[in-house]
């Protein structure tokens, strides 16, 4: 890139960020804008980052390579998109029956998550920062009700990320369809079901009009974290001040994105239910069969993929302890509040 | 030209922060240190904030006045400490049966929380920033088991903050005892019960040795948020860059503090249980009786305190919607994960 080897603390810099998301996903896409704006404010406009939607500079799934080879200095993405390259990427985002949002932040910021994922990304010349979480996503829209695990057999379902690997194992047929084409596929019956994000994002795409059955929980995305990628050479060329500014600005956007989802989903859910959406919890055997399938996938990966194994073992130990703790006072408080007339 | 602007934006400043907490509470006290360190890094050491423990510059509960009258430029506190002055402060921290940690952040960052609390603090000449959350606290240590609401009658319990107002109403006798004196009071039987924070902080004080029954959930603190106070005149005198740097640094510390609790509580809980601590959920009638008492307190405050009413009505609406939403996919995911062998 054009940046000198070591940037003066207050040098003027212009960087580009390639997002994997369209502008219409204002929550997720917006996190990159929030970060860029904060960096600009903190530096009196000297460090400017322009944010580019998917397709503008490169395709949605091209941003890993783009940040790796310094076509752009930064990218914002959901790392599980790259599970085909290596499933280890998903551990920096979400795996089926993984950590929830708070647990993921705890693992990243206070557990070994950030350290281990950074070691993994070093080979790609990328420095990663947690930047946003959607919270637990919904399980998606189904044209027909799902009564048992048997109903998942042969079911053609649009699903993003690593979850498809587990869906396959319970007999479903995962489909990789871009957001903009899901509605038509669901309407025509080319697919039987589709997951996207949650009420706020789903409502905008109108899935409820063509598939009235809305399932939860999205067990393949209990707390998907978005990641800011910074090209390592570009990062190393920054002053210590600018490095710290990126770290703090991404943490600000991290809080802000989860807050946007948590603040906007409730009203959207009410609108959806008002329009006739039927909410269902996945049947017990669907959850249990999927959990079993997921654990089998992880056992196999532990045997075949050393990079995965190194990170997953730490992740899994953290998940076990976190759920042991969260089941008491967090769950006890939430459970009580959720059953009150407020 | 650019030169004078740079000088202004990058002026050397030394500020002092008075914490309401002792250094031994490394999680909470540590949040102020994390923020100060990040501000230093972002400014190349030009903006330095020294962090002072409770008692060093002023007493723990003197920090509101200290930041208000500019004895210090900053304070870090749990605003419900000031409920005696005005219960409205508690809405910037925790009220019984209030928002959980994620909901509180959502209300602050994306709801009307930050806007409304800032209006309230304006009269004191303070600008507030969310800076840390402990997550749902435990319900505390009891010398004897609590079998029903009747067992709360006459119970002398150490409790911090606004929760005492509700405990009184169900017949308990709240006691205001500093952290360092709780152990002895519990041991001697001067008090029957004491709440502090959660496993990580409680273990250090050794309460399990003198009161083996550990209750959850801490319904008076489902997601207590800590607050950074900045003296408004000092804040207004800062460059736009420094203002943004405080905002981002406090958000970084906000994420980091919750992560510390979430990462450290599990091991401490295991140690406590290994040492014989017995975990109990509060009986249903204790929860329901306390909930009813809390709602009565809020109704009365709505009638007597316009500042409270203005903020509480917004808070309560947010709480209702947030719990409606969280009960589906978040609770469904957590509930399933917590019941698996991980």
Question: Going across the major beta sheet of chain A, what is the strand order?
Answer: 7-6-8-5-9-11
How does the helix and strand content of chain A classify structurally?
alpha/beta
Mean pLDDT of chain A: 95
Strand content bin of chain A: 5-15%
Q: How many E-type strands of chain A?
A: 11
Q: Report helical residue fraction of chain A.
A: 40-55%
- Low-confidence stretches of chain A are 1-5
Report the top-level CATH class of the domain at 13-133 and 222-263 in chain A.
Answer: Alpha Beta
What do we call the CATH homologous superfamily of the domain at 13-133 and 222-263 in chain A? Bacterial extracellular solute-binding protein, family 7
Architecture per CATH nomenclature, i.e. the level-2 architecture of the domain at 13-133 and 222-263 in chain A = 3-Layer(aba) Sandwich
Q: Note the gap between the termini of chain A.
A: 55 Å
Largest chain interface and its two residue counts? A-B, 86 and 86 residues
> What is the CATH topology assignment of the domain at 13-133 and 222-263 in chain A?
D-Maltodextrin-Binding Protein, domain 2
């Amino acid at each position: 890139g054009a940046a000198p080897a070591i940037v003066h603390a207050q040098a003027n810099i212009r960087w580009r960020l390639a997002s994997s998301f369209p502008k219409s996903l204002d929550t997720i896409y917006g996190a990159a804008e929030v970060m860029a704006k904060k960096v600009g404010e903190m530096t009196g406009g000297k460090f400017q980052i322009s944010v580019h939607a998917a397709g503008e500079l490169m395709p949605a799934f091209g941003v890993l390579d783009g940040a790796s080879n310094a076509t752009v200095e930064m990218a914002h993405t959901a790392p599980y998109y790259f599970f085909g390259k290596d499933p280890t990427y998903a551990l920096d985002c979400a795996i089926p029956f993984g950590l929830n949002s708070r647990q993921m932040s705890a693992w990243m910021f206070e557990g070994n998550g950030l350290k281990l994922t950074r070691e993994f990304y070093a080979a790609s010349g990328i420095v990663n920062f947690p930047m946003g979480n959607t919270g637990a996503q919904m399980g998606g829209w189904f044209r027909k009700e799902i009564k048992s695990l048997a109903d998942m057999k042969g079911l053609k379902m649009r699903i993003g990320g690593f979850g498809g690997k587990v869906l396959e194992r319970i007999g479903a047929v995962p489909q990789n369809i871009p957001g903009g084409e899901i509605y038509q596929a669901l309407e025509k019956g080319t697919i039987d079901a589709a997951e996207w994000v949650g009420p706020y994002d789903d409502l905008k795409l109108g899935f409820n009009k063509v598939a009235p059955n809305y399932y939860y929980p999205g067990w393949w995305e209990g707390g998907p974290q978005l990641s800011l990628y910074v090209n390592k050479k570009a990062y190393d060329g920054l002053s210590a001040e600018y490095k710290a500014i990126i770290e703090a600005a991404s943490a600000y956007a991290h809080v802000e994105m989860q807050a946007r989802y948590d603040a906007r989903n409730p009203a959207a859910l009410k609108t959806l239910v008002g329009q006739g959406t039927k909410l269902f919890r996945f049947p017990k055997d669907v959850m249990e069969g999927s959990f079993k399938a997921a654990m089998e996938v992880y056992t196999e990966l532990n045997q075949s993929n050393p990079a995965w194994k190194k990170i997953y073992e730490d992740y899994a130990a953290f998940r076990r302890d976190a759920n042991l703790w969260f089941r008491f006072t967090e769950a006890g408080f939430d459970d009580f509040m959720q059953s009150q007339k407020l």
